[in-house]
Amino acid sequence: MKQKILVAGGTGYIGSHTTVELQNAGYEVVIIDDLSNSTIEVLDGIEKITGVRPGFIQLDLKDKEGARKALQANPGIKGIILFAASKAVGESVQQPLKYYRNNIVTLINLLELMPEFGIEGIVFSSSCTVYGQPDPENLPVTEDAPIKPATSPYGNTKQINEEIIRDTIHAGAPFKSIILRYFNPIGAHPSAEIGELPNGVPQNLIPYLTQTAIGIRKELSVFGDDYDTPDGSCIRDYINVVDLAKAHVIAMDRMLEDKSEKPVEIFNLGTGNGVSVLELIRTFEEATGVKVPHKIVGRREGDIEQVWANPERANKVLGWKAKETLADTLRSAWNWQKRLREKGIQ
Ligand code: UFG
Q: Alpha helix locations (H) across 257-311?
């Protein structure tokens, strides 16, 4: 058995897939989640896949005393992976203080508590949103591309979170960090026992697309076909969520085995392939044989035209590479949507 890891936000979309991979790799996992955007049944899915039910504490990590008690009750935690955060770009524009409070206080509480409990490292969920719209010469984007002013309070919290980690470690804090900048995570575990479960009307492309394909939504709106891209629709780097989850295990191993080259390391997690919205719809239709009714509408405010990763640093230094094809990943998202229907959830 490897060490004990705290997965903050472990019942969420990426957190649950990462818990599975950590457990598969032999780590013992304790999840803290306030269940504000996930459900307790996620633990059943994790248990079905791995045969192990992770430890679970329902807690809002803005409550520092509560967090301290949780760590006291679970001695021996060696590493933290921090997913717990608010993540809806549009909502962050409407309710900025919710985002600043949730995303910043949670991180500060954990960083303050880590030395008290001898926790050696923290893996932080960041986002390619920190690059904004990279200049054309910076595409595909590397970790050294300039950080652009954030286009939403959500994006700003990710930039501030990264700075807080860097400043704290620079000041001599006795732990390491690996910051992972995700591109667009999609898909679900191949077992279809866990996946993305958005609340209400989905804001993100894939859940909206699969809900349209199954008939919950009438048609998918494609936000703009007049961008300066080959087919006019926006380009993103869609990364399989299980591939993404595996990178967290490698990052945790690296910190705990003292292999980091620097106290704070930053890695892009993407495939290196830019795919347009229209290409993605076509790939889904070909992969599943299911049509996705869609129409072109106006641009969505705040959208980046095109961004995709240069993942070479993660490929070389972490020895990690995205493996799943887009078609397989989209099939996994579709299987998950069908499973939700079978269960009568969506
Ligand atoms: N899109 C549509 N129709 C929809 C939804 C999305 O055409 O109904 C398009 C968007 O315009 C965009 C692409 O699909 O071109 C992807 O949109 P998503 O909302 O799925 O993802 P974003 O790239 O906008 O944002 C995601 C996460 C953010 C994160 C950001 C950058 O949602 O949390 O990536 O990391 F900050």
A: 277-288
Mutating to test ligand 1, I would choose from 154, 204, 297 the residue with most ligand atoms within 8 A of its C-beta, which is 204
From the CA of 236, how far away is ligand 1's center (Å)? 8
CA distance 179 to 67: 22
**Whose Cα sits closest to atom 10 in ligand 1?**
223
Q: How confident is the model at residue 3 (pLDDT cuts 50, 70, 90)?
A: very high
Rounded average pLDDT over 310-335: 98
Mutate to test the pocket of ligand 1, among 91, 199, 277 (most ligand atoms within 8 A of CB): 277
**Model pTM score:** 0.97
Other CB atoms within 10 Å distance of the CB of residue 312:
15
Mean pLDDT for 330-346 is 94
Ranges of H-type helices in the chain: 13-24, 42-50, 64-73, 89-94, 96-100, 106-116, 153-170, 205-213, 241-256, 277-288, 312-313, 326-342
Q: Would residue 27 show up in a list of annotated catalytic residues for this protein?
A: no
